Amino acid sequence: MVAFNEFSTVPSLLRNVVENIHKPEETFLIHKKGAAWEEISFKETLERADSIAAFFLEKGIAKGDRLGLMIENSPEYVYYDQGIQQIGAINVSIYPTLSEHEVAYIINDSGIKALLIGNPFLFKKILKIAANCCELQYIIPTFNDFEKIPVPADVKANVIPFKTLLAKTVSEREQKQINQRRREVLPADISSLIYTSGTTGTPKGVMLTHNNFVENVNVCLQQIPVIDETETFLSFLPLSHVFERTATYHVCCAQGCKMAFAQSLELLAKNMGEVRPTVMSCVPRLLERIHDKAIKSGTAAGGMKANIFNWALETGKNYREAKEAGKGAGLILGAKKAIAEKLVFSKIKEKTGGRLKFMLSGGAALPRNVGEFFGDLGIKVLEGFGLTETSPVMAVTEYHRQVYGTVGRIIPGIEVAIQDVETKEMITIQTHHTFREDFECAEGEIIVRGHCVMKGYFNKPAETAEAIDKDKWFHTGDIGRYYKGNLQITDRLKNMIVNAYGKNVYPTPVENIYLKSPKIDQLFLIGDKREYITAIIIPNRETLQETFQLTDSFFQEEAPFIDNPEIKEWMDKDIKKISGELAKFERIKNFLIKRNPFDIDEGEITPTMKVKRRVVEKKYVEAINAMYHEAVEAE
């Protein structure tokens, strides 16, 4: 591959591919159209991007203008992104699952002038808020029959079908103008605004530059040099998230890999069998599901089949551990591994398409036992760590050296330090080149400095200064240490919840929304590393007593939680009503009603009345687990 210094911006990456890696007619994008998979070449992709660029140049879009996308992963996302970035516009991708209020805030805060819309549901959502989005000039639906959806009279933005942009003929003069604008895009220019919620609940636009993205891809490819131009990636995580944007889309643009789009999460397993990917990014929850399903399938029948399955897993474990210890497997263990591969492992691998070189897990912590399970099967799962503000990768597992329970080695070109939370003294500063397999240290806050750190928060200088100190260290808010030379995440400085899909949920603003109900006195969110949000609710005692004519003795009963179905139904009405104000991943799916408030004498809250998350979750772990089990059974 040609050195990146010639191709230092996002729109220049594909130009590198067609000049130095692949012929323009070779396949770049793959998507399902009807019953068949359609292949789209690099040439077609760039031509469509040029048509989009020419359309926006005609409309007067200038360098630095913000253009939005609210669309599922698809070729249309790529055409639009490539088109706008090569004329210096900024990509503002909005999560399709966000509430109308949050979407309106992002559109107005960033000043989006045009918004690409992926389906009728999202189109209707935008039409409800568009009249209050003063700078929004163009709404661009990608789907057919959008004309059947009435546009409110107070919406001033023009609705233009995406096919109109694609049909734009690019004149010679416009092509020269596009080429000139592309040359004027600098590495230090902002490539994208990605909004992440702050602890106050107000989303913050993370400004990521072309250099942030390109250098992050460059060094990750150095760290995982086995990725080459022959790979086929299967994309299913949202491109509105920085993880999928970098680890799949930008890697494919840089290396010339094929990029296939899964139809949906529900059809992912089917799509894996059809596309037969060699690499894919994923979240821990997907790997946990594959793990659970494989274990259940392998042992459900009992008898000889279960014995063979368990024997194969034990053999795989022994083989993996021997390899990791640097020992030869030996003839006997090698022969056992070959039998296990034929009888068990090959059948599991075939369900992934049979060609996976590795999977890259990010967005949340991967349980160690799940990582080891895939290692026992001979399927590599590399784990990475980073934040939106770090574009995103700070560390990633090396292909040839894996320490389960860690997020790998620091990437080249940055410094990652561990800082004492109390004293602010540096415990250690590590780089890619200081790596030692035996290095360990005490835990503290993880802070980072270097090319991966964002330019700042859009229009928020105070928040930027709070996150990035005077010495240019970005404070991640995560607690960690070094273990066997690799970075290990151990805790969070604040009580942010990261669900099993990698979605960040800040408890305070969500809890405050639910506290609008007069039935609720206090609410404690649960959901870290879990599939959805639940809560422990402290009801307003007076309201509860009056509604159900309860005596004081009711609140003196020993059981900590109220199991009266009428009371739960009464509370559920408000929960469901209020949930509409929140994004889907923030909504409470099940809850426990606590008979009495959290108690300072029981160590459940601090003197300043803050709930001690670890204490409460540990104390009520059985009831919490039962609540999740109950919700699953109800589905």
Automatic annotation (TrEMBL):
AMP-dependent synthetase/ligase domain: residues covered: 23-458
CDD domains: VL_LC_FACS_like
InterPro entries attached to this UniProt entry: AMP-binding_CS, AMP-dep_synth/lig_dom, ANL_N_sf
One CC-aspect GO term: membrane
Keyword Ribonucleoprotein: no
Pfam families referenced in this protein's UniProt entry, alphabetically: AMP-binding, AMP-binding_C_3
Domain of life: Bacteria
Annotated keywords: ATP-binding, Nucleotide-binding
GO molecular function: ATP binding; long-chain fatty acid-CoA ligase activity
PANTHER family for the chain: AMP-BINDING DOMAIN-CONTAINING PROTEIN-RELATED, LONG-CHAIN-FATTY-ACID--COA LIGASE
UniProt name for this protein: Long-chain acyl-CoA synthetase
Species per Swiss-Prot/TrEMBL record: Pedobacter insulae
Lineage: Bacteria, Pseudomonadati, Bacteroidota, Sphingobacteriia, Sphingobacteriales
